[in-house]
User: What shape does this take?
Amino acid sequence: MPPTDPPKGEKPQKAAGKAKHKVPPADVVGIEVGAGFSEGAPAVRLRRSPEGFLRIVAAGFVPVVSDIESILAMPADMRGPWSLPPAFRAPAAALAVTAPDALVRQSDSVEDATADFDASTLRTKASATGKKGSLPFVAFMPEELARRVARLLPEGRKPTAVSIQVSPLARVNAFAASPTLSAAGGTAVLVQIASNTTTIALFAKGAVALYRELSVGEEDSLHAVAGPMNVDNATAKELLEGGLVDPAPFLGPLVMPIFRQAELSTDWVLRRNGLVVEKFFVAGPPALAPHWAAIFRDQTGREATTCEPVSNFPQEEGASLPPDFDKVSGRFAAAIGAAAAAMQEEDAE
Assistant: This one.
């Protein structure tokens, strides 16, 4: 995709999950660890222009230890023994962690958010309370995992105020910083499909007002289609990608509770903030997102637009990108969201 600029006079979107940082870096590489892709760890380098707009400088897979089992097996005092390819050598780095127990909650307090866990074993970080008393975010993961992930920061890269993030919120950050939300006026609902979870994020005037994470994702959706058809998940994915099957009878019962939650969130923000939310977006695997959006339209009568925030993100001229970037851009959402959060211009407090 050719490089694009935000509309003239438009202010850059603020990313969700603000972090306190007196002098935010203007050149950051975001890397997702724990995704387990065979190609390596997804990485995106972002640079902020003097006018404040973010652009992609490079995207691709880097040779980083990227599966959780290997990370946990590393000695606790081991430094990352690797360096980044030249295109990704930004002065600062931020890591997004994908792991079953790397979580984020929207809650009144750290204590409430982690009530089901042994808080003494966790590393937690809470954002500041948003406007009009909206609930802060509490991100947390096992201290053992956080300590080892911190050792993976590339050599010579300065840590940021949010050097370690959790991937679900990082993906929301990617949407928050994208032209998609800006074009929607900053007020919209995002339904983000991940491997084993789905996130509902409601944005009000550019900031996240409501966040929900549900334990239904891509794998559950594929299984719902594969089971009745007596095929495996890989075959179900191929059928869905090719439009060779109508999955509505199989997916409807699974995803309608998610869409009901999305609709209820709009009622909540209408009562709380007086905002009418009319824009709905579905982001996720190409095999599923269009079908989820179609079911949403059929069952609720509301329009839902499929989107991939990274694919239409502004790029610097001559940006270093994979040849099939438009097709695989969804894999880089957590990485770009991590970098965008690290470049947040406003202090959280």
About this structure: The radius of gyration is 19 Å. Residues 184-308 form a domain with the Nucleotidyltransferase; domain 5 fold (CATH 3.30.420.40).
